[in-house]
Amino acid sequence: MLNVVIFGAPGSGKGTQSELIIRKYELKHISTGEILRTEIKKRSELGLLADEYISKGQLVPDEVIIGMLETILNESKDVKGFIFDGFPRTLTQGEALDRMLREKDTSVAVVLNLSVEGKELVQRLLKRGEILGRSDDNPETIWSRLDVYHNQTEPLKEYYKKQGKLVTIKGDTVEDVFEKITDMLNRIL
Fold first, then answer.
1. Which residue out of 37, 124, 145, 180 is catalytically annotated?
2. N or C: which end of the chain has fewer CB within 10 A?
3. 128 in active site
4. Rounded distance between C-alpha atoms, residue 91 and residue 29, angstroms
5. Does pTM surpass 0.85?
6. Residues 128, 157, 161, 165: which is the catalytic one?
7. How far apart, in whole angstroms, are the C-alpha atoms of residue 27 and residue 68?
8. pLDDT 10s per residue in the chain (189 long)?
9. 43 assigned to active site
């Protein structure tokens, strides 16, 4: 089973690269951001709770996200693997993911760290906000999200680096980044 974590700051291209990886390798996509946005749109209990945090640029509490992910993993049968997009975002979530996958006799194969400069991230997010109308892509929330990423999510790099699973990928274009990802995943397979 091929399990991939795609990692990077908001606006680094995780969603775009995830879609390309899914098509090529037939992995099940687990995007916590997408799930939460759907729940917010439905105005479900989870959605209302998540919206309180997301609208301030904060992370949804670990226990909520971990519980949600555990349900999805348990419901997913006969898959070739998973691509985790937007999860884990904290060390607690990383440890929980390792535990959940171990219980299924599998593990994370690789963590793809998409590296993009700060100015470029902000430009991408502002543009995405204009095009998609995402409420969390405004200047104040963007800076808050980047702050949260650097303080709470970046420590995961060291966690996965110690496991020998972290691969940092830099690139200017979607195609360039995907080519590097494909080379890496083909070596793993």
1. 145
2. C
3. yes
4. 21
5. yes
6. 128
7. 19
8. 999 999 999 999 999 999 999 999 999 999 988 888 888 899 988 888 888 888 888 888 898 888 888 888 988 989 999 999 989 988 999 999 999 999 999 999 999 999 999 899 999 999 998 999 887 888 989 999 899 899 988 999 999 999 999 999 997 799 999 999 999 999 999
9. no
Which residue of the set 14, 37, 124, 180 is catalytic? 14
Helices (H), ranges, 55-117: 62-75, 91-103
Q: CA nearest 161: which of 116, 113, 115? A: 113
Core vs surface per residue 6-17: b (16+ CB within 10 A) or e: bbbbbbbbbbeb
List the helix and strand counts (H, then E) for the chain.
9, 5
User: Using CA atoms in the order 176, 166, 37, 136, what is the torsion angle rounded to 10 degrees?
Assistant: -70
Which of 134, 157, 161, 165 does the annotation list as catalytic? 134
